[in-house]
Amino acid sequence: MKKALLILITLTLSHFALAQFTLKGRVTDKSGNPIAGASVTEKGTTNGNSTNANGYYSFKCSSQTATIVFSNVGYFDHEEKLNGQTTLNATLDENTSSLAEVEVVGTRNLKRSVTDSPVPVDLIPVSKIANATGMVDINTILQYAAPSFNANKQSGSDGADHIEPATLRGMGPDQTLVLINGKRRHQSSLVNLYGTRGRGNTGTDMNAIPSASIERIEILRDGASAQYGSDAIAGVINIVLKQSTDKLDLNFTAGGNSTGYGGSLESGSDMILKSIWDGKQYSGNVNYGLKVGSKGGFFNITGDIDHKDKTYRPNYTTLYPDNYRAEFGDASYTNYSFMLNSRIPLKKDAEVYFFGGLNKRDGDAFAWTRDPESERNVIEIYPNGFNPHIGSNITDYSGSGGVRTKIWGWNSDFNATYGRNRFEYDVTHTLNASLEAASPTSFKAGGFYLGQFDVSANFSKTLQKALNGNGISLAWGLEFRNEQYKIFAGNEDSWKQYGPVIFSIDNTTTPPDTTFRPGGAQGFPGFQPKDVISQSRNNIGGYLDTEFDLTKEWMVAAAIRFENYSDFGSTTNFKIATRYKASPNVNIRGSFSSGFRAPSLPQIAFSSTFTNVAAGKIVDQVIAPNHSDLAFKAGIPRLKEEKSLNASLGFTAKPINNLSLTFDGYWVQVKDRIVLTGLFTSDDDVIGSTLEEMNVGAAQFFTNAVDTRTYGLDIITSYAIPLGANTLNTTFAANFNKMELDAIHTTPALEGKEDIYFGPREKSFLLASAPHFKINLSFDYRMKKSEIFLRFNQFSGVDLTNWNDKVDEYAAKVTTDLSYSYTFNKHVNFTVGGNNIFDVYPSHHDPAATESGGMWDAVQMGFSGAYFFGRFGFNF
C-alpha cells in the first residue's frame, strides 16, 4: 500500500504542464478604495489568491473563458467571465444587511479579514473535510484538521465516554470558549471525574451541533478573555452556521472499524491473530435553505441522524493475567440533531435573526468487570460475573435571537440566548448487590443539568476620517448572564445500601446472605437525595474594544473587560495586539493579554458518592461540594477564578504565488488552576478524623491548586502546485506544545501532602493533555470529476504514570488517511476511503495498571484501529 501511495504521488506530479496563464487585477469598493484580503478564485477549481494591502492580486488561471469569483467579508460576492482577458478588475458592493453578522472571531472590525488579523485565526471548511474523511462529529473533524486541537474517545470513564473532553493547545477543556455565530454557547453539565483527559474540568459538547449545519469553524488561537469573557484563556472556537438558500444537500455515510488487533501482540503467544470488524457507523443529514424576502433574508434548516456501534478491543489475558476489563472499547450511541439559522430584514438598516437547535443522544458504554466471586456480584443473577454498562440520555437545546440595526451610526446588536444541557444516567447489565437475588438489573441513576441565559447589547462603529483617514474601529457592549445547575437523584434502589434480605421462592423461605454486599448500582451508583442541589449565579460584564490603523502598515488593537460574579467577585482584564505590514506579502503580529476563567457551577456544586477503581480495587468515595460542611471542616478554601497571562508573536507571509506561511509562538501562564484532588482516606493523620466524624470513608475536593506555564509554536503552510489543467494543494500544519508545572498550592493544614493533593499520576495526566507535537501533511489533487485526498498525521510520544507509579511510555506514531471522490454530475458525488488505513495503535501496556483498565489509555489516535467508509452526496 505504501508503495502504491508513492506511485500515486509521482504520477500526479508528472502531469505538470505550462498551459496556464497569469491573471491579475485589482479589487476596490464603490469609492475606489482598495479591498485588502479579498478572495479571488477561478470557479470550479482551487486556483486563486487574495488581494494585497493595495487591492492587487495575481494567480495562475487555467482557462481564458473561466468564471472568476470575488468575495470578502462584508461585501456581496461578484462573478465575472474572462472572455479572453488576462487582466480583470472588480468593484464589490458593501453588504450592509450582513455587516453586523459576519465577523471573524478575534476582531470586531467588520472589514478586517483573517489575513490581516493581529492574532492567529484558522478557518476550517467543515463540509469539505467531512466529505474527504467520512468524519461526521465536530470533535473528530477538528482533531485532525487543527493540530492545536485534541480530543480522544475514552473508555471506562463514566460520563466522559459519552461527551469526550477536548482541549486547545493542551489547556483545560473549560479554558476554550465556544461561540455559535459569535454568541456564547452553554457548556455541558458534565464535570470530568475519571479518565485520562480533562479530569476536574467541564467543557462544551460540540458534538451536539450537526456538522451539516456548519459553514465553517473559526479557531482563534490566542487568549481573548478581555474580548469575550470567561473561558477564553486558551482561545475561542466560533461555529458559523450555513446561510445558503435554494439548495438541498443530502449526505449518507456508512463505515466501520477494521482491525487486526484481535489476537496476540507477541510472537510465541498461544493466542491466534484474528481480524475484527466493528464500530459500524451510519449517518444521514439534510440541509435546505429558503429565501425570505428580497433583501438577503433566509431560513436554513438542518436535520441529522448518526448511529455508531461499540468497538471491542480485548485485553490479552495470555500476556496480562490481571484483567479488570472483559469489555473494552468505544461507547455506542445514537445521535439526533436539528439546527435552524435565520435572518429576516425589517427595513434598510434593521433585521431580526434567530438560530438554535436540539440534540438528543442515547449512549451505552462499558464499565469495569465484576468477577463471579466478588462481593459485588450475586451468583444467582450472574453465575459468571458481569460487565455493567453505563448508559446516557443527553438532551441539549439552545436558542439565540435578536435585532440588529443602526442607532446614530452605530451597528447595534441586541441579543438574548438560552441553552441547556441535561445528562441522565441509565445503568444496565448490573445489580444492587445488597438486594441479593431480588435485585433488578437496570437502574435510573439520576443526573444533572446546566442552563445558561444571556442578554447582551453590542455596538460597533468605524470612524473613517480619524487618524488622517486611516480610521478607528470602536466596539463596546454590556452583558448579563444567569447560570443554573441542578443534580437530581436516581431511583432509591440505584443508590441505597439495603440490609440482609429474606425472600421467598416457591413458598420456600431463603435465609439472608451474611456476606457484606455493597449497595447501589454496580458501575455507577445513583445520585442520592443528599446529593440533590439547585444552585445559580449571576454575572454582569462590560467591554471596550478598539482597533487603530496608525498608518497603512501598522495596526494596533486594545480591549478591556470588567465582569462581576455574584459568587466570587469582580475581575478586570486587558488585551493589546498589533500587526505590522513589513511588506505587501509579510505581516508581523503579536499580542499580550490577561485572562480569567470563572469556576464552573459543576465544579462548585458537584456532589456524589460513586464507585471508583484504583489499581483494580473497587472502592466507594465521596466528591464533596466546594461549599459543603465537609470541605469547610477539611480546610478546603472556596473556589476563585483562574488567572492567566498570554503572549504571542508570529508572522504571515506569501513569498511566492500560491504559497502561504504562518508561524505563531505562544506563552500562557495560568495561576490557581482548578483541579480535583487525590483521594483522602479516613486514616489520614490530618483530616482522617474529620472524615470519620462525618461517616465518610474517602473524599476528594475541587480546589485552586496548580500553577502552570504552557508554551509552543503553531506552523501552517499551504502551497497550490499547478499540474497541467489541475492543481495539487498541499498543506503542512503543526503544533509544538509543552506544559510545565510551576507550583502546587495545598492548604496550610495539608502542607507536605502534595503527593495526595495533586500527586505524580495527576501531574502526568495534566502535563500530557496534548502531545508535545502533532503534525499533519495533506495532499488534495483535483481533476475534472475526481479528487484524491491523502493525509499523514504524526503524533509525538506521551508519558503517563500508571497505578504502580511507573511511567507508561506511548511512542510516537504516524497514521495515514486516504480517500477518492468522484462527481457523477452536478447533483451526485461519491467518496470512498479510510482513516488510519494501516491500523496503527498506541503502544500497549498492562491493563492492570493503566487508568482505563485496557491496554491503551486515551492518547494520540485512539484505540479503535482503521476506519473505512463510503459516502454519497446529493445536491439539488
UniProtKB/TrEMBL annotation:
<dbReference type="InterPro" id="IPR039426">
    <property type="entry name" value="TonB-dep_rcpt-like"/>
</dbReference>
<dbReference type="Pfam" id="PF00593">
    <property type="entry name" value="TonB_dep_Rec_b-barrel"/>
</dbReference>
<feature type="domain" description="TonB-dependent receptor-like beta-barrel">
    <location>
        <begin position="366"/>
        <end position="837"/>
    </location>
</feature>
<dbReference type="InterPro" id="IPR036942">
    <property type="entry name" value="Beta-barrel_TonB_sf"/>
</dbReference>
<comment type="similarity">
    <text>Belongs to the TonB-dependent receptor family.</text>
</comment>
<keyword id="KW-0675">Receptor</keyword>
<keyword id="KW-0813">Transport</keyword>
<keyword id="KW-1134">Transmembrane beta strand</keyword>
<dbReference type="InterPro" id="IPR037066">
    <property type="entry name" value="Plug_dom_sf"/>
</dbReference>
<keyword id="KW-0812">Transmembrane</keyword>
<protein>
    <submittedName>
        <fullName>TonB-dependent receptor</fullName>
    </submittedName>
</protein>
<dbReference type="GO" id="GO:0009279">
    <property type="term" value="C:cell outer membrane"/>
</dbReference>
<dbReference type="Pfam" id="PF07715">
    <property type="entry name" value="Plug"/>
</dbReference>
<keyword id="KW-0472">Membrane</keyword>
<keyword id="KW-0732">Signal</keyword>
<feature type="signal peptide">
    <location>
        <begin position="1"/>
        <end position="19"/>
    </location>
</feature>
<dbReference type="InterPro" id="IPR012910">
    <property type="entry name" value="Plug_dom"/>
</dbReference>
<dbReference type="InterPro" id="IPR000531">
    <property type="entry name" value="Beta-barrel_TonB"/>
</dbReference>
<keyword id="KW-0998">Cell outer membrane</keyword>
<feature type="domain" description="TonB-dependent receptor plug">
    <location>
        <begin position="114"/>
        <end position="236"/>
    </location>
</feature>
<dbReference type="InterPro" id="IPR008969">
    <property type="entry name" value="CarboxyPept-like_regulatory"/>
</dbReference>
<dbReference type="Pfam" id="PF13715">
    <property type="entry name" value="CarbopepD_reg_2"/>
</dbReference>
<keyword id="KW-0798">TonB box</keyword>
